[in-house]
Specification:
With about 100 residues, the protein is mostly beta strands. About 15% of the residues lie in helices and about 40% in strands. Strand 1 and strand 2 (about 15-20) form a beta hairpin.
Length: about 100
């Protein structure tokens, strides 16, 4: 997973200092369910993440809550506030098999 968000044509790059990963939902892992969640959030001047919103998820209602909980604990370098940062986080079965 990328530790930067917002890179792109004319958009600033926000560098993460801490990105605790979401836990793979136990039932999803046990069933071999993989998925992806797209979420949006804001970064404060102090580097805190707030206003986290799940935009979409495949499959729905499996890992959105865990992703939002993890994103609320992410931290970015201070001094670079941003709004509407979008990230996509994937859950892949092999990540838990190691």
């Amino acid at each position: 997973m990328s530790l930067e968000a917002g890179s792109g044509e004319g958009r600033p790059v926000y560098r993460a200092s801490s990105t605790p990963q979401p836990l793979y939902p136990v039932k999803a892992h046990a069933s071999g369910i993989e998925g992806q969640v797209k979420a949006r959030f804001d970064i404060s001047e102090t580097g805190d993440v707030n206003n986290v919103v799940s935009l979409s998820a495949r499959p729905a209602n499996v890992s959105e809550g865990e992703v939002c909980r993890a994103l609320n604990n992410w931290r970015y370098e201070s001094g670079h506030a941003g709004k509407g940062i979008i990230v996509s986080i994937g859950f892949h079965h092999q990540e838990m098999d190691n």
